[in-house]
């Protein structure tokens, strides 16, 4: 009898230990939106890049401190001014079971060049060449310094899987904006997770890919259930009630509550989305006067906005790109000096001020409406009377493009994670032909700036290029080309048993494949 | 009676046509759907090409005629966001909303009738004062605030009920129902209480005032004079007559309840039609917007028509007046 009991206890211990060992870890994730498609090329947006990092792997990716680290490309070298060679990792499997080789990279880049959202970004590239099964050359039409930046967007797709036609006779590699396509509902990447269930707007289930190549990844989430929860208060409540494990983004008004709560944690970091307002020189001749623009910059208290409206969760800015970007100049800091602002207005002949109009969105950037209202009251101190109108983003952008107001708000995140991108869209002379200055509603135009930015587009020496871009920032700073406000903070919150800090980054797509659940 | 029904149906069709036209006209003021479809750095030329491809540059009447032709065939267009036929999207979302409305309606019916009747019979009791006071509060607090308060009390602090979503569902001949699982019911409690909080006070007050008015009528006095039992007076003679206006208002409010799901569903992330509608507005998914307005309009008109017909059956004098 004693032996039987001992044997039974032993068996029970073994079973319990085994059960504990194989217990699956599920991450319940809530975001404000879910992927609009399973096709990573159908739209360039934060949500789709987040999805791409979970299901597909890029050639290279950004680290938390803005360095490039190898992923599907083990190493790379510049052969000449027009060619960069990538050596691919061997033994990588797609979710379909197929082997990853150079032809998949070629297929993917060719496809990116057809995507409406990506073709402009990949315009500098000519056809990539598969030198061998695991070596691929990326070629550009002229010297191009951002090959590595763009390689972070190359998420190799399974060329065999996406070749041929689907049951409706449509090519499987079709990129369809509206309407169904094979890639819309099917996926085969090399990423840490496979999509096992998807109901758009309701729920997405990602399951760990057993054959995932990165054995060094510490990630241990076996399954991720993504639920879009649009309402900020509901998303926070879902975390606090334990219904979800991780939420992003976190609304600023709930930061303190989450910090105080036991069992949950908050992670924030400065992002790279610059919030600015532009002063339209064509609509309002006063803004063509450099002194007036400088006065406005001096009159707006960036630090005050960060402290009072953003509640400390933003980084006051004096230039376009944050630290870590090529053109970042630490000397260009926010300027706030009310007396100097008044002096400049007097020198410009506008001591008694003038009236102008302003528009801003009310649901696009963090606290955008309140920021706009603060600006109105700050400009009132130098006798500039601003008539402010705010509206939802769905209507805002048409008004913005039509330049219906003298002052317009816009935030910008660089698609290339590079300083030049900000200037290309926001400060270069508007040119419909080239697309430069597309969002320059200030109509600021400085040929010297344009020349420098164009030079930077073919300077492949990082140090020299950095110098050029810093010069651009200095000119824009001195000219008060626009009014920089701050870089929005990124925020994530999760239960205490999640190791969040190592996986977040300035691009705002946490690397969930590397997430450790304790 | 037959002529009455036919006339009401013809009126309904006319209303639906007007709704379609208004919805379609509003479409042009909502915003640019292409904005949401492409990244912000895509060039204007690319966006213009996409707009042309979607037919958004055509003249208004041209678009409207195309819309009506397709609508007659049951095709209300393709949702820009969901990339599926809009009717398909709406049908998929409908079960969630209809179940929420159904349960909310049950709550309203089973609470408002006893409360209203009691308040009418015992107008000065302490319970009546509490009921009337609470109903003022209920009608004054916005539904989204009620919803958020419920979440924070019962989900965050007490941890009794889930804070969002529908929970587990079962597919019943294509209908995804949450009524057949414990999890589904748990998820349904808070949203339906929040949604019913809008209408409950109205119905309590309606029933109370109608009942009090009926209790003052001649035939009730006659019933008392005959020495009938109080229960018979209250529930046979008075109550039935009280229900007539309640049925009429109830039909209209049922339609309005569907509209109010927009706020409730948004707060609870309840994946129904209301939530879908609000998202469509934010994304300028104009095709889905128009389709939804058409569907809800049709439902609303159908409910009203049925209510009128039922009313004609219950109260023959309506038919007589109609016939003239």
UniProtKB/TrEMBL annotation, chain B:
It is found in: Cell membrane. It holds the Pfam family BPD_transp_1_N. This is Binding-protein-dependent transport systems inner membrane component. It is a multi-pass membrane protein. It comes from the Bacteria. Residues 94-311 form the ABC transmembrane type-1 domain. Keywords: Cell membrane, Membrane, Transmembrane, Transmembrane helix, Transport. One of its GO terms (biological process) is transmembrane transport. GO terms for cellular component: plasma membrane. The chain crosses the membrane at residues 12-30, 100-121, 130-154, 188-207, 242-263, 289-314. Its main location: membrane. Coiled coil: none annotated. InterPro entries: BPD_transp_1_N (IPR045621), MetI-like (IPR000515), MetI-like_sf (IPR035906). Belongs to the binding-protein-dependent transport system permease family.
């Amino acid at each position: 009898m004693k032996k039987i009991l001992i044997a039974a206890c032993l068996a029970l211990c073994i079973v319990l230990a085994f059960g504990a060992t194989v217990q699956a870890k599920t991450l319940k994730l809530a975001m404000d939106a879910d992927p609009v498609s399973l096709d990573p090329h159908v739209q360039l947006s934060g949500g789709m890049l987040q999805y791409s990092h979970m299901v597909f792997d890029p050639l290279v990716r950004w680290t938390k401190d803005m360095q490039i680290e190898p992923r599907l490309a083990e190493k790379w070298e510049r052969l000449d001014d027009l060619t960069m060679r990538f050596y691919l990792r061997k033994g990588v499997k797609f979710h379909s079971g197929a082997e990853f080789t150079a032809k998949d990279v070629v297929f993917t880049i060719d496809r990116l060049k057809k995507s409406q959202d990506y073709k402009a970004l990949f315009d500098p590239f000519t056809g990539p060449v598969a030198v061998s099964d695991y070596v691929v050359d990326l070629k550009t039409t002229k010297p191009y310094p951002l090959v590595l930046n763009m390689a972070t967007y190359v998420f190799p797709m399974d060329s065999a899987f996406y070749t041929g036609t689907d049951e409706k006779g449509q090519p499987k590699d079709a990129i369809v904006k509206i309407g169904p396509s094979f890639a819309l509902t099917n996926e085969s990447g090399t990423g840490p997770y496979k999509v096992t269930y998807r109901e758009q707007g309701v729920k997405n289930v990602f399951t760990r890919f057993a054959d995932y190549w990165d054995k060094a990844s510490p990630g241990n989430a076996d399954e991720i259930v993504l639920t879009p929860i649009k309402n900020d208060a509901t998303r926070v409540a879902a975390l606090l009630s334990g219904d979800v494990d991780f939420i992003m983004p976190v609304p600023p008004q709930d930061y303190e509550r989450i910090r105080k709560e036991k069992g949950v944690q908050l992670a924030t970091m400065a992002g790279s989305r610059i919030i600015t307002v532009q002063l339209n020189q064509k609509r309002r001749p006063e803004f063509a006067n450099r002194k007036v623009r400088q006065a406005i910059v001096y009159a707006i208290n960036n630090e005050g906005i960060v402290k009072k409206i953003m509640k400390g969760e933003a980084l006051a800015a004096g230039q376009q790109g944050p630290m870590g970007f090529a053109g970042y100049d630490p000397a260009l800091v926010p300027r706030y000096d009310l007396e100097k602002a008044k002096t400049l207005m007097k020198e410009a002949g506008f001591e008694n001020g003038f009236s102008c109009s302003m528009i801003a969105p009310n649901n696009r950037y963090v606290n955008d409406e309140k920021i706009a209202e603060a600006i109105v009251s700050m400009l009132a101190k130098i006798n500039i009377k601003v008539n402010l109108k705010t509206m939802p983003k769905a209507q805002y952008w048409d008004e913005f493009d039509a330049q219906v107001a003298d002052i317009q708000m816009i935030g910008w995140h660089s698609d290339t994670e590079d300083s030049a991108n900000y200037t290309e869209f926001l400060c270069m002379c508007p040119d419909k032909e080239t697309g430069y200055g597309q969002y320059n509603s200030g109509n600021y135009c400085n040929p010297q700036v344009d020349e420098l930015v164009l030079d930077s587009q073919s300077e492949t020496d990082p140090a020299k290029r950095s110098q050029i871009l810093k010069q651009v920032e200095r000119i824009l700073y001195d000219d008060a080309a626009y009014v920089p406000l701050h870089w929005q903070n990124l925020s994530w919150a999760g239960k205490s048993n999640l190791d969040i800090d190592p996986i977040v980054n300035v691009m705002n797509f946490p690397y969930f494949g590397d997430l450790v659940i304790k | 009676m037959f002529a009455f029904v036919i006339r009401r149906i013809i009126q309904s069709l006319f209303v639906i046509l007007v709704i379609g036209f208004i919805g379609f006209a509003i479409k042009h003021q909502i915003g640019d759907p292409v904005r949401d479809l492409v990244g912000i750095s895509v060039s204007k030329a690319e966006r213009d090409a996409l707009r042309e491809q979607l037919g958004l540059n055509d003249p208004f009447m041209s678009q409207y005629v195309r819309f009506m032709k397709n609508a007659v065939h049951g095709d209300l267009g393709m949702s820009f966001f969901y990339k599926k036929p809009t009717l398909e999207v709406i049908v998929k979302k409908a079960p969630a909303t209809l179940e929420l409305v159904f349960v909310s309606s049950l709550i309203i019916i089973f609470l408002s009738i006893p409360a209203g009747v009691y308040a009418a019979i015992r107008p000065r009791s302490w319970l009546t004062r509490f009921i009337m006071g609470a109903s003022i509060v209920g009608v004054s607090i916005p539904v989204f605030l009620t919803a958020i308060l419920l979440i924070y009390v019962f989900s965050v602090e007490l941890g009794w009920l889930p804070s969002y979503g529908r929970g587990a569902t079962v597919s019943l001949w294509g209908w995804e129902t949450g009524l057949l699982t414990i999890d589904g019911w748990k998820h349904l409690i808070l949203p339906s209480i929040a949604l019913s909080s809008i209408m409950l006070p109205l119905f309590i007050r309606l029933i109370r005032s109608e009942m009090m008015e009926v209790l003052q009528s001649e035939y009730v006095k006659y019933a008392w004079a005959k020495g009938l039992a109080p229960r018979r007076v209250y529930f046979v003679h008075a109550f039935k007559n009280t229900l007539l206006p309640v049925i009429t208002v109830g039909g209209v409010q049922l339609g309005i309840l569907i509209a109010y799901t927009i706020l409730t569903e948004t707060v609870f992330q309840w994946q129904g039609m209301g939530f879908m509608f609000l998202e469509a507005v934010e994304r300028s998914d104009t095709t889905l917007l128009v389709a939804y307005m058409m569907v809800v309009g049709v439902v609303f008109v159908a409910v009203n028509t049925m209510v009128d017909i039922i009313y004609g059956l219950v109260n023959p004098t309506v038919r007589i007046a109609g016939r003239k």
